[in-house]
Design a protein that fits this description.
Strand content: 25-35%
Number of domains: 1
Strand order of the largest sheet: 1-2-4-5-3-6
Number of strands: 6
Radius of gyration: 16 Å
Largest sheet: 6 strands, antiparallel
Length: about 160
């Protein structure tokens, strides 16, 4: 097996506010990955969708609902990432829109991620309904939209 030295950039987050099908959308993007060179090392996309239960207006969650789900996603993200010094996954983005939260990671080895998420589903140890998908994507096509240069928001 070929050994590759990968330099992982420190996370840098950007917040993007936009609309999707006329609904507000708030996206948090790890902008540090825009020019990441070793994409093939993290060649699997894990996308997770969590369905909010308590909604305010325009399909956005209440503050309490958002806090509950985001705390849960932080725990999931830590487990999916694994060892911070040698991560198995890189957080790419999360989008809140139309009653759901979509989260995206690029993964090196999908097996432990799949096993972990399956155990959560089997144990029913999740606060809200959720589903996930892991697909091979060594060119990061499924997350490239999040890594674009977004126009600056006018104040």
């Amino acid at each position: 097996m070929k050994e590759v030295k990968v330099v992982i950039p420190d996370d840098y987050y950007s917040i993007v506010e936009c609309e999707s099908d006329g609904k507000p959308s708030i996206i948090v993007v790890n902008s540090a990955l825009k020019n990441f060179k070793n994409r093939d090392v993290f060649g699997w996309t894990c996308s997770l969708t969590i369905y909010y239960k308590d909604l305010a207006q325009n399909g956005m969650p209440t503050h309490e609902e958002s806090d509950l789900v985001l705390d849960y996603v932080e725990k999931l993200g830590s487990a999916i990432k694994g060892d911070p010094d040698h991560p198995n996954a890189l957080f790419v983005a999360r989008e809140t829109c139309d009653g759901q939260l979509n989260v995206y990671w690029q993964v090196n080895d999908p097996k432990p991620v799949h096993q972990y998420l399956q155990s959560i589903i089997q144990e029913e140890s999740y606060p809200r309904e959720m589903e996930y998908r892991i697909e091979y994507d060594d060119e990061w096509k499924s997350v490239e939209w999040f890594l674009q240069d977004f126009p600056e928001k006018e104040e």
